[in-house]
């Protein structure tokens, strides 16, 4: 599984934690930016980079993890692209169901929650749950995902 990670300025330091953790777990991670902290950058640029990477990847199960202040902006920007199912996730329960039911291929993390020192364990549990939960493949979920792409 190839994982693309990106953020805006608000998620910049969280992105570093996520990258370090994923690489330590043996995942193939590509940091799509930003490379430097810039308080003037804009999240849509990085959401677009991630979705283009997913859509042009040769990997069988490419995914992205995007971070910004509340994660909503990243999710909205990423979901503009056909075939992208971005989910804003703040706990393991949401991480599980968005993979199982929706076959989420983009995880959007709110830095306001996960960049706090006391949230470190929660962050890693959310990442592991989202990455390890398979899509159920249930007929109704396949049908619904297809309907999303037809909008």
From TrEMBL:
Signal peptide residues on this chain, from the entry's feature table: none
GO molecular function: ribose-5-phosphate isomerase activity
Pfam families in the record: LacAB_rpiB
SUPFAM superfamilies per the UniProt record, alphabetical: Ribose/Galactose isomerase RpiB/AlsB (SSF89623)
UniProt keyword annotations, A-Z: Isomerase
UniProt-listed Enzyme Commission number(s): 5.3.1.6
InterPro entries attached to this UniProt entry: RpiB_LacA_LacB, RpiB_LacA_LacB_sf
Keyword rRNA-binding: no
Family: Belongs to the LacAB/RpiB family.
NCBIfam families assigned: rpiB_lacA_lacB
Stated name of the protein: Ribose-5-phosphate isomerase B
Organism: Candidatus Nanogingivalis gingivitcus
């Amino acid at each position: 599984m190839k994982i693309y990670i990106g953020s805006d300025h608000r998620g910049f330091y969280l992105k570093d934690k996520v990258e370090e953790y994923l690489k330590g777990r043996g995942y193939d991670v590509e940091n799509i930016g930003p490379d430097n902290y810039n308080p003037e950058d804009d999240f849509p640029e990085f959401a677009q980079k991630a979705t283009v990477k997913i859509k042009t990847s040769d990997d069988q199960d490419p995914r992205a993890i995007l971070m910004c202040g509340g994660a909503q902006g990243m999710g909205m920007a990423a979901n503009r692209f056909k075939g992208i199912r971005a989910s804003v996730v703040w706990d393991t329960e949401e991480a599980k169901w968005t993979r199982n039911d929706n076959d989420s291929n983009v995880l959007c993390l709110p830095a306001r929650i996960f960049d706090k020192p006391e949230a470190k364990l929660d962050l890693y549990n959310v990442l592991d749950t989202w990455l390890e939960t398979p899509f159920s493949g249930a007929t109704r979920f396949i049908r619904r995902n297809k309907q999303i792409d037809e909008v």
